[in-house]
Amino acid sequence: MVESDGRQFDLACVFVVLVDWFPYALFFLHIFLRETEAGQGPSRFSSPASPVGGVPPAGSHRRAVAAPSPSVVLRNATVAKDSHRARSAIDVLVVGLTVGGAGALIFSIGSIWFILRRKSKNASRVDGDIFDGEFQNGMGPRKFSFVQIAKMTRNFKAEKLGGGGFGAVYKGYLRDLDTHVAVKRISKASKQGLKEYASEVKIINRLRHKNLVKLIGWCHEKGELILVYEFMANGSLDSHLFKGKSLLSWDVRFKTVQGLASALFYLHEQGDHCVLHRDIKTSNVMLDSGFNAKLGDFGLARLVCHAKGSQTTDLAGTMGYMAPECVSSGKASKEADVYSFGVVALEIACGRRSVEPKFEEAQVSLVEWVWDSYGSERLLGAADPKLRMHFDVKQMECLLMVGLWCVHPDQNSRPSIRQVIQALDFEAPLPDLPSTMPTLMYGAPIGCGIQASEPCFSTDPTTIPRD
């Protein structure tokens, strides 16, 4: 509907331009015809040898001029009458076409007004459709106008807090609440469209937890998709771990993991529906002024019933944090979220990204490198060297083991987020993991007992590698 309206609007604009210039074209045509006729006049009505006005030129010899014959006078009168009729016809044609052009111009302006009005109504209807019934209690996010958003961010010239393929995040100031906010302006070139935008607003509106970033408001106006979040003074977790913003102490790191686990437990177990986040990573973990962790960015999140706990959908997420079964089947599940959590836990403990292409081959993958360290009985060697051994050894070992448990290639061997919390609180024993990381194979060997389209796991290092 919107594309159709756009085409109608373009055609109407072209029509208006043509109609607008049409009277001018007729005017110049009229002048041209007049001038042409005026130029032909002398050849019709007088002879080139005839003096102007019948007065002979000075110094000319007087000679008798023969009176024109009656036939010549009659012919000249007839020609003059025909010329007058032609000019009258041209005048009538020009007036008629001018009046018609003016009418067409008025009609075109009315059509454009109607199309713009319908587009405005459609935009309002879209707002009503995607958020129908979500904010009737008045307790959820509020709707902002684009003018209000522009004032918050000084017309988007305020400090830029971050950016990426989705767009940019600006620091804003909300005067009526006397607080700073984070304004996420989604790029029109972003893959995050209206569906993801609406999903983020609707899902996060249902959520209330101290370890989740609070959504304050939203704006869908003039083709803009904008979200307004609470301001997180210490930015994203990845800016501290990988970009040198600050060196997080071990206490802050362990508290961050516990806070993230608490948020995930709330999403998976404590709401009316199970919320699958699908994009847990360090850049989506924010730190407030007290370095308390809060999970944000619910653009890819999905609601599923607790009994089902999974959903087959399009491939979505960030490589390096996605579970193997998500890559192969597109299946989103609690276990896939736990896998992503495990990768983040290992990043926090080791102080490096999940994938480091510049490292030597054995250390490119964080998961494989840490598992190899565990199998070689040098697990603490994977701890972040920037900490200079200033950490609780028992907590570090626990975090590394829990991380490996969560990233087990077999989703059925991963813990639930409840078990993760119990392990981090030392209320449950740590798992007994194989010394060699199980390898995911695409194709079942004889005796595996599953279909060839399903993954098979083995601890044999000589198994078929992934393509």
UniProtKB/TrEMBL annotation:
This is Protein kinase domain-containing protein. The chain crosses the membrane at residues 12-33, 92-116. It comes from the Eukaryota. Residues 43-66 are annotated as: Disordered. Belongs to the protein kinase superfamily. Gene3D superfamilies: Phosphorylase Kinase, domain 1, Transferase(Phosphotransferase) domain 1. Residues 155-440 form the Protein kinase domain. Residues 46-59 have a biased composition (Low complexity). Keywords: ATP-binding, Kinase, Membrane, Nucleotide-binding, Serine/threonine-protein kinase, Transferase, Transmembrane, Transmembrane helix. ATP binds at residue 184. InterPro entries: Kinase-like_dom_sf, L-type_Lectin-RKs, Prot_kinase_dom, Protein_kinase_ATP_BS, Ser/Thr_kinase_AS.
